[in-house]
Amino acid sequence: MAEKLTPFHITILVYMTQSGIIIFTLPRQLAEYFGTNGWLFMVPCFVISSLNIYLISLVYHMGKGRSIFLILEQSISKVVLYPLYIGLSSVWLIFGCMIGKKYVLLFQMISFPTTNPMIFKLAIDLLALLLLTKGIYTISKATTVFFWVTIWMYLLLLGFIPNFQWVRLTPFIFKEGHDMVRGGLDIYTAFLGYELSLLYLPYMDHKKKSMRGVYAGNTILSVAYISFAFICFGFFSLGQLKKLLYPLLDLLAFIQLPFVERLENLLYGFFLFLILVTVVMYWWAAAESVQRILPRANISILCSILVGISFVVSYIPTTLDQVNTWIMYLSYAATGIAFGLPLLLVVLLLVQRKRRNSYA
Amino acid sequence: MGRDQKTTPSLQHILQQFDQCADLSRRNFPEIRVDIVYFPHLVSSKLLTDEILEPFARPQGDKIEQLLEQSQFVFQADVKKVVVGILGGSVAIFHMDQVYMLDAYGPETRSLVQSETETIITGPHDSFVESASTNLSLIRRRIKSSHLKVIRCSVGEISKTDVYILYIKGIANLEYVEELQKRIQRIEIDAINEGAMLSQFIEDNPNSVFPQFLTTERPDAAESKLEGGKIITIIDNSPTAISAPASFFEFFSSPDDYYQRWALGTALRLLRYSALLITIIFTAMYVSITTYHYEMIPEALLRTLAESRTRVPFPPVYEALLMETMIELLREAGARLPTKIGQTIGIVGGIVIGQAAVQAGLTSNILIIAVASSAIASFVIPSYMMSASIRLVRFGLIILAGIWGNMGLSMGVALLIIHLSSLTSLGSSYLSPVAPMKGTDWKDVFIRAPFALLKTRPSQTRTPNTIRQKMRK
């Protein structure tokens, strides 16, 4: 029996791909760019990402669940498409790689300042490769377990409610911010990951309402981000939030149990599961694109080569600042892909439909 | 005389086959020109007396032909089958030029006793023994239904061990039955000695540290698996039955859970999952915290921990590995030795580990607590196979925690999850019902909900008959 991705697994995959490294800095970025009640900016982000998912669902319905590669290849010559595939896979591959590198550098900063971060990077890449070569169904199964292992952490937010003060939210909206357009773009990247659902289309169970899974995943993420940002704005003052480099770590460090404290050391490890899924999904998307160019290539060898390339590339940026710059530009490109690719596909599908009607 | 000459070649041939088999018995009834050949230790002496010795001892002329026409005597012309039959506990009866077989299989077997590996507090105490027919009877007497089907196969070029595949027609998925049968028939080996050994030949991933089929010695467990839509495999000469397909979470339930009140059953299940966590990460956490993350210890506890470690000259990872190895040595020694000496080992080990190692400055007190808790927790897991696998995995996590602290621990857990996700049992997900997610099954996996709520069979079995209970209240 051929396995299919059920709406539930799509929900989990989308949510887990979306939740990534940005959560460490999100409240600070919101405070910096949007000032007071910056958390409210997450609401328009949610609406925009939902509209983007609507575009993807149009591709799904108009293309009747066909793979996006089939839709593209039906209308555009391979000479044009191959560079596009290479472009897509490059962005996705290096984006995934930089997310991994940022996580490693953060971890190195917290716990192992003297160790070469590339050793950690190698270990994480090998883990990701192991999962990558197992295929999308095993990835989805592992992701479901990772989801249950990590989702409980949002319950920790309840522990901050006694220290939450409404007065810290202030009655003002978006005051003391700056550069909101750039900030908006930067923060929107926190929602990226849903665009990979374009590639799930052939693996979805067409008998079920699979696209709802994508909406649900995005909604879970939005609720999680909004509640997290909201708690942060009521827990820290605006000035404090602007100064904290990684507010999430400070928030976690606040938790004290009778037998253990400074929980951020332990909980940071749990974020590995979220990062791993994000990295694996972007690499999986990259591998899917390259496979269209090399359909006969052995998938394990192909994945190993891609991961090898990304590992070499990850040597280039050495500091957190450099990695942040790479991530910023790559996330702009990924946002462009998130909107541009489904738009292109919808146009192609309209043309194909028109052509079919004129032949009939 | 002529008749004797006719039967002799066939008899000679069989005797030649069993040349130098001193345990073969041959008896002769010259008055009725009958020879019988059998292994006395394989046949039931009562059956032999009632069916052969007594009737054949009173010669009644040519009535012997009429006697041999009775249905229990099966005519056999194939010499190979005669040999196999004798080896399988039949009595070969040579009369004139013809051979008849009487199935008189009934060797001495161990009596039904309580299982030592799967003990329970309430519920039936009988367990499987080494005789497949006894084991089959233990199941048949529990499931009085003609839908309980049994497929017989033979495995082992030399041992020719009988293997029985049991399933309930209409409940079990026949695709799984066919797949299992195919896998068993594909085995090419000289002998299979045990059920757990057979399961390694038919598992989806034989190289994994985790068992992919559940093994049980309890007939009530086998019965409930059958009724849940699973397939049971029984092997002759083994008290271990195999249940397939299996899920990772199935190894954490015990028949006891259903015999106790649901609240207690639920508490026990939750306790076992906590035990899993403790077994896997407790010692590794100790290593991680005392090596890299001292800041995680609250001030009040820090002094005690620091004092306890002041005399220990090794890094925590060596200290932990030393103690874990010691515990494993004790466990293995306790398992191999007779019960009385085993107790001595326990006491000696307890003193060595509990006191002497700390006083000698080899380990810290707190590590002893961590190692002991994690060892005790591992024994809470009802399946010995799973418990042993998890104990082995723990060593890997301790080493990773020793190298990279909490990050190493996280990497180890991630690796474990990735590995478990890639495993399948008879082609179905090993992590069912978590991945793929089947929320309705959770109430009989993580908790033991009241019977009124346990209405469906596990989804992993892909059973055509999902409803197992229709009671409203």
Automatic annotation (TrEMBL), chain A:
It is found in: Membrane. Its main location: membrane. The chain crosses the membrane at residues 6-26, 38-60, 80-99, 119-139, 145-164, 185-203, 215-237, 266-285, 297-317, 329-351. Keywords: Germination, Membrane, Transmembrane, Transmembrane helix, Transport. The keyword RNA-binding does not apply. This is GerAB/ArcD/ProY family transporter. It holds the Pfam family Spore_permease. Belongs to the amino acid-polyamine-organocation (APC) superfamily. Spore germination protein (SGP) (TC 2.A.3.9) family. It comes from the Bacteria. It is a multi-pass membrane protein.
UniProtKB/TrEMBL annotation, chain B:
Keywords: Membrane, Transmembrane, Transmembrane helix. Pfam families: GerA. The chain crosses the membrane at residues 270-289, 366-385, 397-420. InterPro entries: Spore_Ger, UPF0353/GerABKA_families. Belongs to the GerABKA family. This is Spore germination protein. It comes from Paenibacillus tritici.
